[in-house]
Specification:
alpha/beta, single chain, 160 residues, 12% strand, globular, three-stranded parallel β-sheet, 41% helix
Length: 160
């Protein structure tokens, strides 16, 4: 816990400790599925074995071992402009990012604290924020429901 003066700013180094890898991705370049994969490939330096499909993107986001860091921050600028005209594709993108974030959120830190090591920031025009939040919330609910259906009977771990 950190205590700061009222109306004071919390220094970034208190939030981001250790080695942090930050990737800025541009939603305007994510016009279609290939554009999404290209942006992640370039922005994260995905390995050559990347399979250029949603499962491969999920697998790579769940690994990131080629980028040695203690935590990763993915900033998607203009997220509201990603995959225009392809609602199903945008939902797949959001679900892939949510699944990756969920996987990282269960990583145990050496000191025994559960701490998300992957932070995804979706930046968009102020007028688009409510719509993108609603889309992400809907994708989150779908993702959780899907994982619940796939969990073996009697498993209460909360992990897919």
């Amino acid at each position: 816990m950190r205590v700061v003066p009222e109306q004071g700013a919390l220094p970034v180094d208190l939030l981001l400790t250790g080695r942090t890898y930050v990737a800025r991705l541009d939603g305007r370049r994510m016009c279609d599925t290939d554009g999404v994969f290209r942006e992640f490939y370039d922005g994260l330096g995905l390995p050559d074995y990347f399979g250029w499909n949603w499962n491969a993107l999920h697998d790579c986001l769940g690994d990131l071992s080629w980028l040695p860091a203690d935590q990763y921050v993915l900033i998607v600028d203009a997220a509201d402009q990603a995959m225009p005209g392809d609602a199903a594709g945008r939902r797949q993108l959001f679900r892939t990012l949510l699944r990756a974030g969920r996987r990282w959120s269960s990583v145990k830190r050496p000191e025994g604290i559960d701490l998300s090591r992957l932070l995804v920031v979706m930046s968009c025009a102020p007028a688009s924020v409510p719509d993108v939040r609603a889309q992400v919330r809907s994708c989150w609910e779908e993702t959780v429901a899907s994982e619940e259906r796939l969990r073996p009977a009697g498993d209460v771990s909360g992990r897919p």
